[in-house]
Amino acid sequence: MTEAADFRLEDSADGKTAVLTGDWTAVDMGTANDRLARALKGGRQVSLDLNHVGRFDTSGAYEVLRAAEVNGSLNRINAPANVQRLLDLVRDATKAEPTPHIQRRSFHQLFDRIGRGVFDIGVSVFDTLVFNGHLLLATGRALRNPRRVRWAAVIDLMERAGLDAIPVIATTTFFIGAVVGLLGANMLKTFGAQVFVVELIGVAVLREFNVLITALLLAGRSASSFAAEIGAMKMNQEIDAMQVLGVDAFDALVFPRFAALFLTIPLLVFIATIAGLAGGLLVASTALGIGPDAFFQRLLDNVGITNFWVGLSKAPIMAVVIAGIGCRQGMEVGGDVESLGRRVTAAVVHAIFAAILIDAVFALIYMKLNI
């Protein structure tokens, strides 16, 4: 049962003594704190007796100390050990340094941030080179002795990171092919050249969209998965345990993911090509009346197989970069969940950017080679 906070003043040989009673808490204190401060104000040789206090919290401790400061000549405080510890805790907290005022950023701090950003880029480039070196060593060891490769892990990752992505890749490229065919038919119909929509679909799907859409979907799906899996193991110190046991993390974790994506991406690009052409064929047959025979005949005559090989040649580079980015970001995860979230996000963003950049570079190279 709670009892309202109160006090009484008693005369003693050392002066007046304020005997506190009841519950000195934020809920039950009421106006007792203000009355205590007024009673002690200007007094001389006043003592506080807290032996009869019921419940006591930080609010009560703060008000007691405030009243003692108002008095200015407190003799002593008699209190049980637990109450005294709370008083000491609150007294130390009130004497702590105030939170520093946040100053506005000056102009030179802009250059400081730029310098730190450039330095961080240099550190990131160095760490990337170190990671690539370790990966090359692991790849060399695997090629020299294929029995070292954990083929069970590679096959499992080929299924999870590659084959399980077939439905989403096929569906996406199907609609991409259909959209390209629909837009091309509407534009070319103005010039009476709607029959050339077959060439437009063929070049767009065989040369660009099949590998680019596959790479973008793998960047969002597989790169994030690699970063999350390796990052979670890093957080749980499983990678440290592997090193203690003499197991190379690149042999056990990085290379199987690298090999799985490298081996499955040609199949995914081929399926994306078939799906994209199927979407374009659907639009060409329904909107323009171009049948399958005419569609594929024009593809063979005017587009050719070269464009397919041009698109497929980008696939291994895309796989290497996407797998490398995902695994590297996973290896950089710290010991907290926030670090894991940042690295997974960075893996997706960097992989998407790298896929688009690689596609642009290949486009420039093939344009210069007139391929």
Number of helices: 13
Radius of gyration: 37 Å
Main sheet properties: 5 strands, mixed
Order of helices and strands: EEHEEHEHHHHHHHHHHH
- The total strand number stands at 5
Helix content: over 70%
Low-confidence stretches: none
| Shape designation | elongated
What is the rounded distance between the termini?
Answer: 90 Å
Descriptive key words:
371 residues; alpha/beta; Transcription Regulator spoIIAA; 71% helix
Describe the protein.
The protein has 371 residues and is α/β, with parallel strands linked by helices. It folds into two domains: 6-94, STAS domain (Transcription Regulator spoIIAA, 2-Layer Sandwich); 134-368, no CATH class. The protein contains 13 helices and five strands. Strands 1, 2, 3, 4 and 5 form a five-stranded mixed β-sheet that branches. The N and C termini lie far apart (90 Å). 35% of the residues are buried.
Sequence-ordered SSE layout with sheet pairings:
Elements: E1 6-12, E2 15-24, H1 32-40, E3 46-49, E4 53-56, H2 58-71, E5 74-78, H3 81-94, H4 107-144, H5 151-162, H6 166-189, H7 197-235, H8 238-244, H9 249-287, H10 292-303, H11 306-313, H12 315-331, H13 337-368
Parallel strand pairs: 2-3, 2-4, 3-5
Antiparallel strand pairs: 1-2
Helix pairs in contact: 1-2, 2-3, 4-9, 5-9, 6-7, 6-9, 7-9, 7-10, 7-11, 7-12, 7-13, 9-12, 12-13
